[in-house]
Specification:
This protein has 8 helices and 10 strands. The protein is α/β, with parallel strands linked by helices. The protein folds into 2 domains: 4-45, no CATH class; 56-249, Vaccinia Virus protein VP39 (Rossmann fold), CATH 3.40.50. The strands form 2 sheets. It has a 7-stranded mixed sheet, with helices on both faces. It has a 3-stranded mixed sheet with strand order 1-2-3, with no helix packed on it. Bound molecules: S-adenosylmethionine (SAM). Residues 97, 99-102, 104-105, 126-128, 135, 137, 140, 167-168, 186-189, 192 line the site of S-adenosylmethionine.
Length: 250
């Protein structure tokens, strides 16, 4: 596969017309069938190497676990997370995702790096799992009383993955690593992300990668507006990636 073609785009007025426009644009791109096109997740590129499509470990995990159109459309984002995790495996410390929802991203990562065989490494996943309408994040389709157990079951073959139900940052007082080699924040919630950073950023080891899933998305602009001054105070700047993610190297 040297193209990724999805019709998952967010924030459209008329999806059919938008997709027709993308198709017309694709028709005007020179070259054979492999045009290096990534269409989806509000990205449209062509004549790109899209190196992650040649990453056999990632593509095997993606085929096994990316089941919904959104999960399939966000491969570029997942490849960023995988890059950060692989970097973390060269460092000391554990791995963190706040929050994991169904656990799909980390499931792919665990497969791609054989995480269950990294006996001295631990992956900590957090989520509320049930939607709380008093909180700033939006409900997602699989939120509910069954989700926590389902995610624990999804990682039952990985004894070094700990799934914790609770509100970030409060729950971090009960369960959290002391040294962090990689962290992924994906809370759709500025206050919770700043709370997580307050507790966990100092625990990231030098060279550890932090991925902020929502940083570049206009719909989540309050997160960027809260995070920019937070990082500036500490001498860091966030790199906004074309995927909509933000990237910081400790
Ligand atoms: C976009 S989803 C995470 C997707 C996941 N990272 C993935 O890649 O598959 C966002 C999740 O954040 C969780 N969430 C939002 N605020 C939270 C908080 N304060 N504490 C714990 N979880 C929270 C929601 O329950 C939701 O499941």
């Amino acid at each position: 596969m040297a193209n990724l073609l999805s019709t998952v785009f967010f924030g459209l007025l008329n999806k059919d017309q938008f997709v027709q426009g993308i198709q017309q644009a694709i028709n005007q791109i020179s070259g054979g069938p492999d045009k290096g096109i990534y269409a989806g997740d509000n990205l449209f590129t062509y004549h790109r190497n899209l190196s992650f499509l040649e990453d056999q470990a990632l593509m095997k995990a993606y085929a096994a676990h990316a089941k919904t159109p959104v999960e399939q459309a966000i491969l570029w984002r997942i490849s960023t997370v995988l890059w950060g995790v692989r970097n973390g495996l060269r460092l000391e410390g554990d791995f963190v995702e706040c929050a994991c929802y169904k656990g799909t991203t980390v499931r792919m990562i665990c497969d791609a790096v054989n995480f269950s065989e990294q006996a001295d490494r631990h992956y900590y996943l957090y989520d509320l799992f049930e939607h709380d309408p008093s909180m700033a994040h939006h409900a997602m389709p699989e939120h509910g009383a069954e989700l926590y157990a389902a995610v624990k079951e999804r990682f039952s073959d990985c004894p070094n993955v700990t799934v914790t139900q609770g509100r970030v940052p409060d729950v971090l007082a009960d369960v959290a690593p002391n040294k962090i080699a990689f962290m992924h924040l994906d809370l759709n919630n500025a206050e919770a992300e700043i709370g997580a950073l307050e507790v966990l950023f100092d625990r990231m080891v030098p060279g550890a990668v932090l991925v902020l899933d929502d940083y570049g998305w206009m719909a989540y602009r309050p997160q960027k507006l809260a995070e920019d001054p937070w990082f500036e105070k500490r001498g860091y700047r966030v790199l906004e990636l074309p995927t909509g993610q933000g990237l910081v190297i400790k």
